[in-house]
Specification:
This protein has ten helices and ten strands. By secondary structure, the protein is α+β, with helices and mostly antiparallel strands. It folds into three domains: 147 residues, Sandwich (Jelly Rolls), CATH 2.60.120; 45 residues, no CATH class; 55 residues, Arc Repressor Mutant, subunit A. The strands form two sheets. The protein has a six-stranded antiparallel sheet with strand order 1-2-9-4-7-10. Strands 3-8-5-6 form a four-stranded antiparallel sheet, with no helix packed on it. α7 runs antiparallel to α8. The radius of gyration is 22 Å and the shape is globular. The model has no long low-confidence stretch (mean pLDDT 88). GO terms for molecular function: DNA-binding transcription factor activity; sequence-specific DNA binding. This is AraC family ligand binding domain-containing protein. Pfam families: AraC_binding, HTH_18.
């Protein structure tokens, strides 16, 4: 008896766009040929997830394997195809020129990538985390923090030194930001808006001041504040769906994922333990 090989999975491209920054995140899988020679207006930063990603850039064919980082400047011609049987998969961020220019406002001159393919595991993980933050329901602060981590990882490849922190702690900025988050934890201000409200020069100063004062990021603090509020409401008998909406989570599933990661059980299970009243109409979260 003969058996036939399983058909290759179909090509897939998933695109998510952040309307506030214009940044796009792409998660793609191709069995063979991906695309012909073309150009983009944006800066492209990506990481190969699976297989061998063969592409032409700067007149040289390159082969990216899992974990390697691809860096392509605006208007650089490139193509893409599988470099081995089994196809390939990757994630890519498309960074608009105005966004990168504004984020690098501390340095003069036009930036440029030293190479189009590099081994940089921390940057690869930062790209994956940013793509995931854009694909799934996430707080504005979470997306901003994930994109800032990508920017930090890109600086060496753009010949831009890391931004230096202030010589002293700025407790007043950190305190104002914390008060803003405590006053309305269901609100999602975004890093730039929170920095303005706290009187910081920019979101980078805010992040440094907040970590120096409280040992964590504004986003992590906001998440902890929301989870504490959710515990109190669940213990008082409120249903998970209502708690999710009141505490600023995208939906009940979003609350469920965060709650389980923090406390090891679902919101519904926690509610039952504290009240003895099952939530008959609740879903798995």
């Amino acid at each position: 008896m003969t058996t036939s090989a399983s058909p290759a999975p179909p090509d897939q491209v998933q695109l998510t766009r952040d309307p506030e920054t214009g940044i796009e995140a792409i998660r793609a899988r191709f069995a063979a040929h991906a695309y012909d020679l073309h150009r983009h207006d944006e800066w492209l930063v990506g990481v190969t997830d699976r297989g061998v990603q063969d592409f032409l850039c700067r007149g040289v064919r390159r082969r990216s394997t899992p974990g390697r980082v691809i860096l392509i400047e605006p208007e650089e011609a490139h193509d893409g195809q599988a470099g081995a049987e089994g196809g390939f998969a990757y994630r890519m961020l498309y960074l608009p020129r105005p966004w990168l220019r504004g984020a690098l406002a501390d340095a003069a001159g036009d930036p440029g990538f030293a190479a189009s393919l590099t081994d940089d595991a921390p940057l690869g993980e930062a790209i994956r985390a940013a793509c995931l933050a854009m694909e799934e329901p996430a707080e504005r602060l979470a997306r901003d923090a994930a994109l800032d981590a990508v920017l930090h990882g890109l600086r060496p490849h753009l010949a831009r030194p890391a931004r230096l922190g202030p010589a002293r702690r700025d407790d007043a900025v950190a305190r104002r930001a914390r008060e803003r988050l405590q006053d309305d934890p269901a609100r999602d201000p975004g890093a730039d808006a929170l920095a303005r409200a706290a009187g910081a020069a920019d979101r980078f100063q805010l992040a440094r001041a907040f970590r120096a004062a409280y040992g964590t990021s504004p986003h992590a603090y906001l998440l902890q504040t929301r989870l504490l509020r959710a515990r109190r409401l669940l213990a008082a008998g409120e249903r998970p769906a209502a708690v999710a909406a009141e505490c600023g989570f995208a939906d009940q599933s979003h609350l469920g994922r965060r709650f389980r990661r923090a406390y090891g059980l679902t919101p519904a299970a926690f509610r039952v333990l504290r009240t003895g009243v099952p939530d008959r109409g609740a879903g798995p979260g």
